[in-house]
Design brief:
The protein is an alpha/beta fold. The protein has 14 helices and 7 strands. α2 packs across α4 and α8 (about 100-115) packs parallel to α13.
């Protein structure tokens, strides 16, 4: 059973039924994981053609997951994914984007969802490796950078050896990665290819991967058992940065508590350096 997924999620049902899937149904599941839009918006014929199977096989796959048929499964998936699958150019034309107060309500709900998702056990499973790692590498897609940079900024003050991996310097960074390191990757739907490729390279190098993403359909969730499922709503035409930033701040606070003595000394030393270098305006 995948962690962090609602009990009625078709993604969880796919995982739960995986042992009973036929080879053809496994190919269907793999296609869905590779491209969520196939299931959310594709027809039976399109998905069958993509997988190289028949329409009845697609319908049997849906039934095996507990749905009445493909249409029932698709409607369920669309409900959870459609807001992520719109491009900004689509979203800005949607009537609900022009409703007064909608963005405020969405942000309030997003923060509440993050706090509900990251309970004490989840925070420990994600945060403890960040406290004990030799080096922490942070990777991000473009729209997820706010959360990634929040994590880098906060962790750098409470512990040493925290690096943000830029796409152009990834080769140099990967050359220095080791098995006692941890890589945290932030990315959500419309996943950036470089974020997936860099994360896979870190994994191949023996680095522990922590993914901050949006569920088991994410290619990042397939690279690690340690991942956080965040619901990233649209605020206006764009994906909100608030869930990723909130998650990053909770992780920084956890690491600071975990490394309290070392973190205190590092913060004091940093304050001294800020004073020496005149960092802040008097």
């Amino acid at each position: 059973m995948l962690r962090g997924i609602p009990a009625d999620s078709p993604s969880e049902l796919i995982a739960a039924a995986s042992d009973d899937l036929t080879p053809t149904e496994r190919r269907i599941a793999e296609a869905v994981l590779d491209d969520p839009s196939l299931l959310a918006f594709g027809t039976v014929a399109e998905l069958a053609r993509q997988v190289g199977t028949s329409r009845p096989s697609i319908v049997r796959f849906a039934v095996k997951l507990g749905f009445d048929g493909y249409t029932d499964l698709q409607a369920h998936v669309r409900k959870g994914l459609s807001h992520r699958l719109f491009k900004p150019s689509d979203r800005i034309r949607h009537d609900d984007q022009r409703q007064p107060g909608r963005s405020r309500a969405v942000l309030v709900e997003a923060v509440s969802a993050v706090l509900d998702t990251i309970d004490t056990d989840k925070l420990s499973s994600l945060g403890d490796p960040l406290a004990s790692a030799e080096t922490v590498w942070v990777v991000s897609g473009e729209t997820a950078q706010a959360g990634a940079l929040t994590l880098v900024s906060g962790l750098s003050i409470v512990r040493p050896r925290v690096h943000f991996v830029n796409e152009h310097s990834a080769g140099t960074d990967l050359a220095g990665a080791a098995k006692h390191d941890v890589a945290v990757v932030f990315d959500f739907y419309r996943y950036r290819q470089h974020a997936v490729d860099i994360t896979r390279a870190f994994s191949d190098a023996g680095v522990t991967i922590i993914a901050i993403t949006d569920g088991p359909l994410s290619p990042l969730a397939r690279l690690t058992d340690t991942w956080l499922d965040l619901d990233v709503p649209a605020v206006g035409p764009f994906d909100s940065s608030v869930p990723a930033v909130a998650a990053a701040e909770l992780l920084v606070a956890h690491v600071a508590r975990k490394l309290h003595t070392q973190a205190t000394k590092r913060i004091d030393r940093t304050e001294e350096m800020w004073a020496t270098t005149g960092t802040f305006v008097e």
